[in-house]
Specification:
The chain has about 150 residues and is an all-alpha fold. Helices cover about 70% and strands about 0% of the residues. The protein has eight helices and no strands.
Length: about 150
């Protein structure tokens, strides 16, 4: 079955929603931070408290901004060489798979520094790097319905 433009529109909206749903994990940090702090406090470093783990949110946000800036550089229409060489599908797959690996690997860490690096820096950077892919994909397949796909997580 050959996919029509309408199929691509629907697939772009669904995939964009699912990807931004994954990006929404940022908002769970306020809920899990006390548990992360108590786990690290018990397992690795008794001097770590919830106040110390609160650096995770700003680290995540700064890394996300760097990822967005880098993705704007790579995905801009003047220099869209990554899109031409690899394609959005593979780039998005690698980014989301990298995020899954970061969360999975982080669940085994007992070290405060490793947790901040993998969940704060690396995960935040990957979210920022993949943030524009659903928007650009919908922009390509829904050029006359720009307000339809501008959903926020």
């Amino acid at each position: 079955m050959k996919l029509t433009l309408q199929h691509y529109e629907i697939l772009s909206l669904i995939s964009g929603f699912l990807i931004t749903f994954v990006f929404g994990s940022l908002y769970t940090l306020g809920t899990i931070t006390p548990y992360i702090a108590s786990y690290i406090h018990y397992e690795d470093d008794p001097s770590i408290y919830a106040v110390d783990v609160s650096i995770l949110y700003p680290t995540y946000m700064v890394s996300q901004v760097f990822g967005i800036v880098l993705s704007m550089y790579f995905f801009s229409y003047e220099r869209n060489f990554l899109q031409k060489i690899i394609g959005f599908k593979l780039l998005c797959f690698m980014g989301v798979y990298g995020m899954v690996i970061c969360v999975f690997v982080t669940s085994f860490f007992k070290s405060y520094a490793a947790f901040i690096f993998f969940y704060g820096v690396l995960f935040g950077f990957l979210v920022g790097f993949c943030y524009l892919i659903p928007v650009l994909n919908c922009y390509e397949y829904l050029p006359h319905k720009k307000g339809t796909y501008w959903f926020k997580n």
